[in-house]
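Dear support,

Our group has been running a series of protein-ligand predictions, and this particular one with tryptophan is the one our PI (initials K.S.) wants archived with full inputs and outputs. We had some confusion internally about which version of the output was final, so please treat the block below as the authoritative record. The input we submitted was:
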Amino acid sequence: MTDQTRDAWGSQLGFILAATGSAVGLGHIWRFPYVAGENGGAAFVLLYIGSVFLIGLPILLVELTLGRHSHRDPVGAIKAIAGQSGWKYLGYLGVASGVFILSFYTVVAGWTFGYLFKTLIGDLTPFGAFSNNALLNGGLYLAFLLMTVGVVYGGISGGIEKWSKILMPILPVILIAIIIYGLTLDGAGAGVSFYLKPDFSRISTDTVLVALGQAFFANSLGMGAMVTYGSYLKDSDNIPGSGLSVVLFGLLISFLAGFAIFPAVFAMGASPAEGPQLVFVVLPQIFASMPGGVLVGFAFFLILTIAALTSTISMMEVPVAFLIDEKKMVRKTAVWVVAGVTVLFGIPSALSFGGSAFFTDLPFLPEAWSVDSFFDIMDYIFGNVALPVGGFFFAVFLGWRWGIDEAIAEIAKGNQSFLGIKSKVWGVLVKYVCPIIIVIVLLNAMGIISF
Ligand code: TRP
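Confirmed final output from the archive:
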């Protein structure tokens, strides 16, 4: 396929909305508030903002620039610079991570979709009885995957961009409506102060790890999703400007999500330390007992579903772009091939919550591990480890193999003002600061070094 016929974004705003859609997902609305709540509130928020600007934004620019330079999927982007060398395996890691992350993320996305209807019809089945229903979970999984397929099928400007432009503006509107309603409830103030009061005593090296991991996952970094989205940019597009918009919009949504959740949690006397269960266990009970709760609950699960959908499409687009660019497949075939492989790994994940005894408690895993289901393994390897590893190699590849000056020249095509001090700072961050910090954090996570 020549670059003339390759798909591209219709406008820079369309790209920004699609990239923001990829970034803003369950990671922001479901994960960020409870992680912040558990790790010292505002103190964690500050640490997270630091990680986003020091590591997240520089690596986002690395990925977008690699994509725009080559107009190829992650494997093609690397081959365009390093030929058939071993670096291409970094691209393969990204493509594989795309399929695997999609496979388990869709399980949680399917729950949000199910809870949309559950809230509407006032069904109060507890989460445990909901998540161990094999047929229901398999069905919701396939339904969500099909919605993703439907969007990716339409290509870049006619599918991903079109839907992002429709869905993304709805999100902050509903979020703000929920916040306004939540703040009118008696006792809401306690939730706000829990969320915002900095508690520096809860900042530890673990907190730093969590903040960095969140900076990767929440900004869709480390597996080439942003290489792929960047590959549909034009030379005249402004990479640093778009990247900054994506990061800032993501921070805003993360931050607002806490205001939507904690006031309601405190007003109803629930515990904020429920962790991952908060959204599916605690909130539905709150919605059920709150005046107008059906509507608020419906609105809440609607934004979660929208946020998850604009994220799953970006995960699917990575392997799809690979099959189109490298294997010369037509888009529609590529989409079905990726969906097929995703189902193969996704159904065991969907059955990891009691649907199947085998996948819920894999017999060959040591009892002592906290990882015991098929879903846990996928989440641990591809959600936690593969992203920082990928991010490390993308930074080293650009900084040391391709060359900072070449990359800066690529960025300058669409933004002359990046030349000068901004590009110097970015160069130092990409060549030294990002790789060193990521290695320290990873070694620390593996228990090889400790502080
Ligand atoms: N950023 C999304 C979220 O916060 C998840 C996501 C989408 C993602 N695409 C990705 C994570 C690519 C890692 C890599 O929910």
